[in-house]
Amino acid sequence: MLECGEIMSKILIIEDDQIISKELEKLLTNSGYQVSILKNFQDSLNEFLKISPDLILLDINIPYINGEVLLKKLRNYSDVPVIMVTSINSQIDEALSISYGADDYITKPYNPNILLLRISAVLKRINKNSNLLNYKDLKINLKKGIITKGIIEIYLTKNEMIIFSYLLNNQNRIVTRDELMTDLWNNNEFINDNALTVNISRLRNKLNEIGYKNIIETRKGQGYILL
Amino acid sequence: MKLKYYLKDKLFEITCFFISIVMILLILFAFKINYQVIISIISISIITYLSLLLFDYFKKERFYTDLLANIETLDKSYLVLETLNKPEFYEGELLVSAVYEINKSMNENINMIETHLKDFKEYIEMWIHEVKIPLATLTLISNNQQCDKKIKRELKRLEDCVEQVLYYARSENAEKDYLIKETDLSKTIKNIGLKNMDNLIENKINYIVENINIKVLTDSKWLEFILGQIINNSIKYKRKIKNSYIKISVKEDDDKTTLIVEDNGIGIKKSDLKQVFDKSFTGENGRNVNKSTGMGLYIAKNMCEKLGHKIEIESVYNEYTKVYITFAKNKYYDVLK
After folding, report:
1. Do B257 and B161 fall into the same domain?
2. Is B290 found in the same domain as B249?
3. If you measure CA to CA, which chain B residue comes closest to A185?
4. What domain range is A19 assigned to?
5. Which positions ≥6 away from A35 have C-beta within 8 Å?
6. pLDDT (tens digit per residue) in A10-30
7. Which of A93, B57, B112, B145 has its CA at 20 to 30 Å from residue A21's CA atom?
8. Residue A111 to residue B194, Cβ atoms within 8 A
9. What is the pTM of this model?
């Protein structure tokens, strides 16, 4: 991430189950985030101020203080984006959390790919500059679906753009087909396995046309990586 | 209370009275008493007796007619005692106090059962939240270690089973566990798609969503569960053909919005169609597929009823199944907005 000029977002995990915390840390680190785990629940607020994260994953059921109460207190000091994590799946609790100032609400057991999407969606909402991206000497306009190289413009379909921007946002690592599929479905493009393959090969062809041959590499059995 | 039956009930008493009158007559005749005196004695006795009888009848008639009529009209007939005037005769008082005692003991009994049920429901909910933590851990581990898809699939099944228990407990309970809000249908449909994505792709079922940018009044979590059951069924009962699909569309009318979930699966036999919402009904499909509990649609129907939605199924065997969920539009809500 640092190579392509972006700053690694720091995520604070507030969760009392140690195994989940560890696995979450692994998942998020693999996805290119910097992760801290809250250790001292008795003084969670000060601990938070010390770490000053870009986003918090906050479990509702934590010792000493209820997650919702902590969120309420937190909001007196900071507007940091907060995603509430809970095993209680009810609209009433969700509405309550949102009213306390949570940015999103996700229930256990969550699909890891969906969790990653929600995190990046919340972060994107905060850094509003994400409509324009750069890759080498290419300028990418997400909203219009256009890639510009000098005076040459190529047009991507919605699906191709979703795939390309996902690869671009995760440039330093291998992206699985599952992740790409989840992102497509999350954008209301409910395509099947074949269609994903077709879309990727079309995207490759288009990039080929402007001289970027083989920049999307297939890693067998794992996924794709943007070089 | 009818006079005829009242008199029938009093037949013995009335017979005794007239026998005694006859005996008095005989005695009076034996003593050769003046006819006029005899007539007045006899008529006074008869009139007095008959008026007492009628007085008693009307007193009881008023009480019992009220009692029966109120039982008939009351929605909760066990509350009938509260609606009655105090009876002015001993038997009535006995009856009222007996019924009162019976009611009291029955209420205590019901209270006890309700408390048990509530405790049980609370325990089930707590247990479900508890069991979701290791489930979440396992899901994360299986993802981090890039485990076999089979493990993920079984974890998803486990999760679905747990979720079903949770919503069963919620839907069977008298307490209000839901929150009706304006809900974006497209978001709900997307969430269900994402939840079942692996399963749909693996089974090569196309998830087709037509333009459904419509808002309805519902509890989004409950609706997600209901639709999840329907989608699950569509996946479970798919036909072995090339072009399997689940198509979701919306029909809008002035007073209602109808969500239609259509699949081209094995369908439901006509003889089974009426019973698909019955508890524990699995039908022919369930027997063939062997993964059916017969609870999904039953819970879904229950929840729809609570939320005030209508749910219907239309199907042709070996062709298609269509599920319709109808949401009422609330004009009052529009005004409030």
Report:
1. no
2. yes
3. B194
4. 10-126
5. A10, A11, A12, A13, A24, A25, A28, A29
6. 999 999 889 999 999 999 998
7. A93
8. yes
9. 0.80
